[in-house]
Design brief:
alpha/beta; Aminopeptidase; eight-stranded mixed sheet; Peptidase_M14; binds zinc ion; 23 strands; metallocarboxypeptidase activity; Urease, subunit C, domain 1; Peptidase M14 domain-containing protein; 491 residues; zinc ion binding
Amino acid sequence: MKVYSPIPPLLLMVSILIFLVACQPQEKFQELNSEQLSGAFEKYKEESINQRRFKHAEVMPLVRSRTGEEFQVEEIGKSVEGRSIFQMTWGNGPTKLLLWSQMHGNESTATMALFDLFNFIEGKADEFEELRTFLKNELTIRFIPIVNPDGMNRWIRRNALDIDLNRDAISLASPEAVLLKNARDTFSPDFGFNLHDQSTFYTVGETEKPATISVLAPAYNYETEVNDVRKKAMQVIVGMNEMLQDLVPGQVGKYNDAFEPRAFGDNIQKWGTSTILIESGGYPNDPEKQEIRKLNFIAMLHAMQQIANRSYEKKSLEDYYSIPDNSFRLMDVIIRNLNLKKGVFEYKADIGIKRKESDLMGDFFVTGSIDDMGDLSIFYGYDELDASDLEIVQGEVYEEPFENPESLSKQEAIELMRMGYLAIKVKEGKALHGLPLLVLKNQSRIPSMISTGNVPNFFLAKNGDLKYALVNGYLIDLEKPKDVDFKQRMM
Ligand SMILES: [Zn+2]
């Protein structure tokens, strides 16, 4: 009598195979590529924001007006100076994402991209509807745009108590830090996106390429160990990097992963939320960071589709570690092999110039000074010039005063520069101007010191013909001037 019948080996193997396949994460969705996501940005860009420095009151209508079917909009508290901080929640899915921006007040690039994302989310019945529905069903996404509205309005990093919110995750001295901590604790997100801007002078490794976007899965201890929480963040970053390489090849770096026990990113990772840091850096000829805003939009939307699809689970940590580290090798302008004279010494040196912004009466102006000089062969410039066969020529002041800076167009100013004038005088005018040359009101001479910390202003000529002008840290090709938004102060 046969009481026991073993399963035939072949059937057993097939069953195991089916079981294993069933246990693999299934990709449910055909993900959009970089071109399609770029198209989504162009279609849904928030047109009312087109430069970095915007005020809290200007964008609050874009938050408050969204209360409706799509978003749940809640005021979660107020800043030191009483400005409202909101969270906005969208989607009904099981996986939770928390994105917060501008905890440093003067870092607004990701905030701009969040407003673009809100427009995308609210779009209807178009070629992106499938993605939208998929994200909505798989994810619950909570946004806290502008954690530091007081710093934002002053255009400073810190809050109104002069505290760096990103060093206040444990001490919680600031109301804004308390709000962010509570938001994380009550929501317990699976994934967190910590959105910042970094210096435009970061490069990708030792290359000349700017670190336009830097990424990091922050460490949760000094040993920089990798647990399952951090691993997931690293895997999502690998996918984001692949997508970004399509758009800005070689321009993605990895931020320093030293553990910072006071920072939010590091602690949120530690508290069990897979945390991704996105830092917006520099991009050539994009001072208002509008290209980088687009990259933020695409990177965030791609991260969302990867998380919803669980496609990130296939990414290898090797690919995370192979993203080059950030270096600090860029300057705004480098003039190489400049022919210099001091007393009896005739020598060549490179000069490296960095521009900085200073606030003035609700606006700002730019000053470009020499950051370093000598052998700058390990540095790169957004603008570079080899001046080996050029000579320095001092500029003249145009004799006849103009009524005000607006009496002259940019093109007319360039014409004057070609004739050897590096400055004009004006009788009156507002403190700031947008001309490529210097505008003198209170002083009569052109300052020009070729030494570190000083602002050099001069022409570079070849056999007596003026070829370039260096004005307040802007290098201007007199034959083919680029279209630049000059932000200068009258002197
Ligand atoms: Zn920051």
